Amino acid sequence: MGAANKVPGVSGGVVAFVAGFYEEFIYSLQKINFKAFKLFINFRFKSFWRYINGRFLGLLILGMLISYFSVSKILDYLIIHYELYVWASFFGMIVGSIYYIVKDFDDWSRRNICLIIISIIVGISISLLDPAKENDNLWFVFICGIIGVSGMTLPGLSGSFILILLGNYVLLLVDSVNALYDTIADLIRWDFSFTENTNRIRLLKVLVVFSIGSLTGLVTLSHFLGYVLKHYKSATFAAIIGFITGSLGVVWPWKYKIYKTDTLGNTQIDALGNPILDNYDRYFPDLTILETYIGLFYIIVGIAIVLWLEWYGQRTQKTSQ
């Protein structure tokens, strides 16, 4: 989930859904409430840990952090050197996810079919939107945190891609994270000169506010999703099917990158000197070249990964019962 949440177009919620722990994830997040806070401040740590399903959440969050800072680094390398094949694998994983959800979905009422169609349209429309300009206003950053965390809780909606559309992907997931790395490195060396670096302090403030917004969004969205899963489960699954299907346009493997340019037509770069991604120009693959068929092979690999996740999830559920 940590690696998936970092990649624009891929939703960590899909991983949770296919692996079979999505509902437990949402219901566990719901337990982070006022009652949990009271248990914690009264030093009833064992009761607090049991109440919030701490073992599950702790292992999940630890795995996400390890994945975000390790597996995602490998993904960054693979996307740079084998971009088409990585996107093809993700495309296959989403196709496999759609199959996984649809095969067990049995409420094909007129209402749910309409929900699926509407959600597909919304998903496709999001992929076609033009990104906004970067905005480091702290209130807007807080809202970005709330909206961006949707990729973790809503299968089919990529939080990273939404941050691109909001114009703050580079600011929040590249520049501010790198500022944190640099600050930790300085602290290890007992170098506090960064306190006089106004840009570094600005980025650290942005990261803190973004993190608070993400935590707020995670808890509030989980309560909303917990409610609709409990009272409108089939309708929620219908919407998820639509969102995931609509997201196929975002992860379509055959596309060109479009970078941000200034008024003179020069490509804009971020703090690391990398061009800033604006959007994608998608095209139909050339069926006369080998690369296309290797891409199709990786789509099959992606589908196989999801089917394996499903099998593994069912196997672990049986052994735990």
**Helix and strand element order:** HHHHHHHHHHHHHHEEH
Sheet with most strands: 2 strands, antiparallel
User: What is the tally of helical segments?
Assistant: 15
Structural class by SSE content: mainly alpha
Strand order of the largest sheet: 1-2
Mean pLDDT: 80
Helix % is: over 70%
Tell me how many strands there are.
Answer: 2
Percent of residues in beta strands? under 5%
Radius of gyration: 21 Å
Distance between the termini: 25 Å
Low-confidence stretches: none
Number of domains: 2
The best one-word shape is globular
Notes on the structure:
This is DUF368 domain-containing protein. Keywords: Membrane, Transmembrane, Transmembrane helix. InterPro entries: VCA0040-like. This protein has 15 helices and 2 strands. It has 321 residues and is mainly alpha-helical. It has 2 domains: 100 residues, no CATH class; 146 residues, no CATH class. Helix 12 packs across helix 13. The longest helix has 34 residues. It is globular. The two termini are 25 Å apart. The mean pLDDT is 80.
In terms of topology, how is this protein built?
Elements: H1 2-6, H2 12-19, H3 22-30, H4 34-41, H5 45-51, H6 54-81, H7 83-103, H8 110-128, H9 138-148, H10 150-153, H11 159-165, H12 169-188, H13 198-231, H14 233-246, E1 255-259, E2 277-282, H15 290-320
Antiparallel strand pairs: 1-2
Helix pairs in contact: 2-7, 3-13, 4-5, 6-7, 7-14, 7-15, 8-14, 9-13, 11-12, 12-13, 13-14
